[in-house]
Amino acid sequence: MSLIWIILVLIVVGVLLWLANAYIPMAAPIKTILNIVVVIAVILWLLSVFGIFSFGAKNTHVYNYYNTNNKSFVM
Question: Where are the domains of the chain?
Answer without folding.
Answer: 3-69
